Amino acid sequence: MAEYKNWIQGAIKRPGAFTKKAEEAGKTTEEYSADVSKNPEKYDKRTVRQARLARILSKLRKRKKAKQKAN
């Protein structure tokens, strides 16, 4: 069970790398991940995976905030 709870730490191999790529493109991480998801052939495999992870983490963050507001 402990391994399951800490999957995020194992998934993040290069902290801040995707954010840096988004800033260099002049976009927010959400905008950049949407762009990468729409056009995966324009980007390398690592960037596509980072975009997918960024979208998952943003959804988790939103869910956590909503849960805290409800309590």
Name the poorly predicted regions. none
Give the number of helices. 5
* Mean pLDDT level: 88
Q: What would you report as the Rg, rounded to the nearest angstrom?
A: 14 Å
Helix content: over 70%
Strand content: under 5%
What would your notes on this structure say?
By secondary structure, the protein is mainly alpha-helical. The chain has one domain (17-70). 75% of the residues lie in helices and 0% in strands. It has five helices and no strands. Helix 3 packs across helix 4 and helix 4 crosses helix 5. 11% of the residues are buried.
Describe the structure concisely for a colleague.
75% of the residues lie in helices and 0% in strands. With 71 residues, the protein is mainly alpha-helical. The chain has one domain (17-70).
Topology (elements, then pairings):
Elements (H helix, E strand, L loop, with lengths): L1 H4 L1 H5 L5 H8 L4 H10 L6 H26 L1
Helix pairs in contact: 3-4, 4-5
For the structure shown, list the relevant keywords.
5 helices; single chain; 71 residues; mainly alpha; 75% helix
